[in-house]
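Extended Data, record Insulinase family protein
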Amino acid sequence: MIRNILILLASAGVLVLSACQSPAPLPRPEVVRTDPVASAWGFDRSDVPRDLEWRYGELANGMRYAIRRNLTPLGSASIRMRVDVGSTAEAEDQQGLAHFLEHMAFNGSTNVPEGEMVRILERNGLAFGADTNASTTFTETVYKLDLPRAGDEVVDTGLMLMRETAGELAIAPRAVDRERGIILSERRARDQYSYRRLTSFLDFALPGTLVARRMPIGDPQVIRSAPAERIRDLYESFYRPDRTVLIVTGDIDPDAIEAKIRARFSDWQPRRPAEAEPVTGTVDADRPTSTAYFRDPAVPTAVSLFVTRPADTSPDSTRKREGAILETLANAMLSRRLAKLARQADPPIIGGSASYTTLFGAAELASIEISAKGDDWQSAVGVADRQLRRALSYGFTQAELDEQMANLRHGFENGARQAATRRSEALADALVSAIDDDLVVTTPAWRLEQFNTFAPRISLDAVNTAFRAIWTGANPQVHVAGKKAIPDAPAAILAAYDESRSTEVLPIADAQRAAFAYRDFGNPGAVATDSRIADLDIRTIRFANNVRLNIKKTDFERDRVRVSLRIGSGALEFNKDKPGLRMFMNSAFASGGLVAHSLDELQTITAGRSVTLGLAASDEYFGTTTITTPEDLELQMQIFAAYMLAPGFRADGDRQWQNRIPVLYDTYDASPGAVAARDVPAIITSGDPRFGTPPLRLLQQRNMAELKAATARAFASGAIEIGIVGDIDEQAAIDIVARTFGALSLRDAAPARLTEARQISFPVDRVPAVLFHEGKSDEAMAMAYWPTTDNADFRTDATLSMLSAVMGLMLTEELRETLGATYSPVAYSSTSSAYPGFGQLVASSNVAVEDIARVEAAVDAIAEKLRTEPVSADLMLRARKPILERIDKSRRENGAWIALLDEAQTEPRWIERFRQARPVYESITAADLQQAAQRWLAQASALRIRILPDPAKVNP
């Protein structure tokens, strides 16, 4: 699989942190070379020390297991079962059956009747999709359970279901036939332009390999017609103990879990002799430079310049990891150059990146990806070529290396500091990825030690040499994707590439790192009130200038601090005569920088720091929610406060917007889902121009001058409320806010109500709406919107939420399991806090065009049943239990606490709802749901929306 940089390095999401003093080197655990378990897991082939917190084992039948006690989230556990089989193991007449087999795991086994697996999990508090899932790739099939409770009953149920999946699946012909339509629906849903471009790219980049010919979703003809026996052939050939790994981590006793695994899985024996390993194939490193063009009416124009070479299949080693560090630094520097280029005046491209990956054991690929400006693929080809040659010829600069070293170093440091509270789900998924990538899972502390040991040898020469190495020894290939026909495309692309190669390139001058200009905001603000919500341990502060601060110290996430910022009244302050201004702000505000610093300068200044740049507009506030560290909290607050005093509104934001929005807008009719996101919000608000996506010509009118005027009042004097949750000293947080936001001028005591701006209404006319998309000709969407109400009354809100959960279960059973008409039907309730009286309960399904009428009829029948019959006790349990488990889990999640704290003083009703959530949901009865359905789900009240293929423009 693609090289897992999350394991080799640190997650990309935290590569924005600063350096601090390196810890003393840790003793390196010795590799036990005579340990049979080490041999079974491959540890004896590597000098990389494994993480000893994992207990690794192997049963006599060859099944491997890994167990780890981990207390985040407290009281829960995660189970993963990885089977070493993916689409590359399929024969010609089995294309898609590895994925089909994954579906059959939910459709009956020796001890679990068809349709009962998901119900069993729901009764134990697992939501289908969120806590229960599975996936199939080219190389593996993975089953996932995230258990809300780690008690014996739930864990035993999870292990029982994994054992059923491993060796007891029924694969009944009638169940197979019912599942065909579901998988074809999933295939339709995934058949977007991005998927089609990927298949074209893999076919061009990896010719002759199974990866190019075995997309996991499969061949539709095979899905329609393959007999159950061919699925069973794959199952019995490849679902074997010696191809399976079981992973359990969480708030568990490893000894007890190991005993359960041995008792449950030791009797599992293969039903057939072992099959030969699939021969994936490899690439020809001597392939001459060639080109390919992928045309699709929905695809944004893009260019890939790349080289491939046979994959390095040698064992994981410290040497390979050091090489990966050098490659990562080089590609980060080149990606940064491309980002800067895209922000220049009249840029030739709108974005780009560089990477180096391993593709499913078939090849190693060094690539530059360029997003073209409009349809200008020629300029994009030239940029890719010239930027590559500039880096190969002249290398990178010391300033560029220093910036990326700061990012990378603090990523390792952050990983080591936060190691104690890593989530069980993430630990389990990381081990699955490591197995697939043939890597050893190490500790964050060892990765930091390795980086610090290697850092003195990371020079410009070393990085430049590593970058040249990944681009040397193979001929560049060029893949272009676009909308328009290119006459004799391969020759035209090659001519453009050759023309660019004849152009001279020059080195980039070194740059200096500026100092941040916004450190001193004046005299720190005085605290006017200071109180505590005792039962929830929330401290509430109001400064003399009316800035409000809510703090909760937790130990759920080591060395992580979550911050919320709410300013003014948000998009309510935008006039209706500026449609798209909210979208403009959310896309372009960060690009406007600050008065003293452009966005590029800010990114350099904040290299090695965990901070967020930019603000966004929500319904009722301007602001954001982000994650930083105790060390970087002050810089984060300085940046946010600087946006109040000196927002840049630079022309950079206008340029980026004008370059990007036409490209983005062209994708808005590429699928039913894209059309729904663009048009439905305006439909259900009676055409209010503030909702949905306005026409392109109106979006192109939006600009920084308008945004500056529209946000001026809020930034100057609007109410401000700040939430801080996590690993933080309360007094330190108060002092930081006092020095930043507390030092600002007087703010409004509360957000402006803007009563007139809050008036929206559901359309009175319920005439069905028909919209059209330009995607695949067999794809449609059926939607029903029932108007409800706002969330002013908690019990009403909770009842609607429960009603939608029950409807979702019924839709899944009827539309997916009985009719086989859709992969993932959805029902949800949305009740507004911003717009009085406004809300809706929604049922939505992606369907085949020919199925749309019977799906709509089935939805109507479900709504009628909810109105006329009480909900069964089992449905009530399966809908309620996952909600209650989410409520309980939220008490141990910083994400839930920051959502509560963001307006804990302005809207104290949320505090009381937080307290009452479980008892309110527990008290809702079947009669309550029937009464709610009778009130809200009347057939005549529903607004029905169909999204159909445009017969003149669809993609066949």
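Summary. Residues 1-33 have pLDDT under 50 and may be disordered.
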